[in-house]
Write a structure and sequence with these properties.
Blueprint: E1 2-6, H1 11-23, E2 28-33, E3 53-57, H2 63-73, E4 77-80, H3 87-92, H4 95-114, E5 119-125, H5 152-171, E6 175-180, E7 182-184, H6 193-202, E8 207-210, E9 216-221, H7 222-235, E10 241-244, E11 249-251, H8 252-263, E12 270-273, H9 288-294, H10 302-315, H11 317-324, H12 328-336
Parallel strand pairs: 1-2, 1-4, 2-3, 4-5, 5-6, 6-10, 7-9, 8-12
Antiparallel strand pairs: 9-11
Helix pairs in contact: 1-7, 2-4, 4-5, 6-8, 10-11
The protein binds nicotinamide-adenine-dinucleotide and thymidine-5'-diphosphate.
Amino acid sequence: MRMLVTGGAGFIGANFVFYMLREYQDISIICVDKLTYAGNLSTLESVMDDNRFEFVKMDICDREGIYGLFEEKKPDVVVNFAAETHVDRSITDPDVFLRTNIMGTCVLMDACREYGNIRFHQISTDEVYGDLPLDRPDLMFTEETPIHTSSPYSSSKASADLLVLAYYRTYNLPVTISRCSNNYGPYQFPEKLIPLMIANATADRPLPVYGQGLNVRDWLYVDDHCAAVDLIIRDGMIGEVYNIGGHNEMRNIDIVKLILKKLGKSEDLITYVTDRKGHDLRYAIDPEKIHKELGWLPSVRFEDGIEKTIDWYIDNREWWEKIINGEYKEYYRKMYGSVENK
Ligand code: NAD
Ligand code: TYD
């Protein structure tokens, strides 16, 4: 199988590349990534010499480049992880989210149509459903939950989802969509909650918690997401959406306290900061469909996954220290400047 994976130098895309190369001998992966601030070639170091893997630096919005690549590589399947992904950045600069997340998806699907009605899988998010109230634990997102977005990020992802379903209906493009809950694990960019808190706690810097830290996210270890995507690509029903989540809801403040405890640091480092605009209260996925239809179940318990993740960040300081000492420094100063020196 020749698989084209976009966004493979980012967090989940890279973990997916590793997962597929581990699982399948007879696979060849072409990884396309623009290497934005969130893409990191050093993440892919361990597979660069694998003759089943090839890296191409390219913007998914570059129609000519993408068509040329499809013509040359003739992929059998395309998995689109490439996206602008950070909600806070989408609030200050929505433009690039619309460009990459919507137009990029359009270009990839047009190329799929042009070069043989190629199988296309879109990596989406549970954020397209908006949020759930904190006082109704019985409510969860199913695939039937209406799209109801809050941030420019989730709106751009939802727009792409609508376009993907339209390409199925209008052109009969063989598509599937997966909507996963929050992922955690190795190689996540340190602007996201878990790696940010690990990095700050390690350096005895303040841990910026938005609002009162009561917002709830449903956390899934990244390999479990990769396994689900693999299953959908192989056995999923064309034209269908699959939710992915592990019934692991946690309040932000509890995650932060757990990280501090594991690292042996004081809770005095917790600093409550101004809440995110439009901050979604709670996400919770009902994964019944993928379980019933494809037999998927998560395999990593949160207690084990978070332990593994913290250990990974401790053992791989060089990977994230390079990031936090680079251009990310300026973003951090703008975003959290007032909590720099507690
Ligand atoms: P990430 O920000 O770590 O990585 C995104 C990658 O896409 C980077 O390598 C970046 O360089 C690349 N990219 C960005 N714009 C590009 C462009 N125009 N052309 C080519 N490459 C481009 O993101 P992630 O957390 O790995 O998320 C991957 C996908 O999974 C996204 O589509 C995201 O919406 C979805 N998702 C993420 C989560 C999560 O918890 N992280 C949960 C559900 C869904
Ligand atoms: P994040 O990792 O940005 O993922 P998402 O917003 O896509 O769920 O944030 C996870 C939660 O953590 C979210 O409720 C916002 C909160 N948060 C903080 O409290 N402080 C921070 O510095 C960050 C980045 C996030």
